[in-house]
Amino acid sequence: MTEACEHITAVRAMTIKRPARRECEECVKTGSRWMHLRTCQSCGATLCCDSSPNRHASAHAKASGHPVVISAEPGERWLYCYPDDAFAEY
Questions:
Q1: Number of Cβ atoms within 10 Å of the Cβ of 4
Q2: Distance in angstroms (rounded) separating the CA atoms of residues 16 and 35
Q3: DSSP H or E segment with residue 71
Q4: SS3 label, residue 80
Q5: Cα end-to-end span (Å), the chain
Q6: Could you list the mean pLDDT of each consecutive 10-residue stretch along the chain, which spans 90 residues?
Q7: How much is the pLDDT for 81?
């Protein structure tokens, strides 16, 4: 496992934000499809992953500066930091 970055360490010290939705907020607006969901740990937005055609979670992280997402998929318990390319389980 990759050494956790400061962003992930800070999120792990707080309460993990769980997904409020079971759909990509941006894909719903455009009628697009998504593969997997991620929840932003800064604002709570639920967006699609890089396996999805629109990569909304990555775009959100880049545009907003919100670095860390969790998997919003049932049974998965991990965090990912986009700028540090770091992964950690919780």
A1: 18
A2: 22
A3: strand 68-71
A4: strand
A5: 12
A6: 76 86 95 96 96 97 97 94 93
A7: 97
Q: Is 14 exposed, middle or buried (0-12, 13-18, 19+ CB in 10 A)?
A: exposed
Side-by-side strand order, sheet with 68-71: 46-48, 37-40, 68-71, 78-81, 86-89
Residues written for the chain? 90
> Which pLDDT score, from 0 to 100, does residue 14 have?
77
11 in helix, strand or coil? helix
Please spell the DSSP secondary structure of 17-59, one letter per residue. Answer: PPPS-SS-HHHHHHT---S-EEEETTT--EEE-TTSTT-HHHH
Q: Cα separation of 46 and 79, whole Å?
A: 14
Name the 3-class secondary structure at 60.
helix
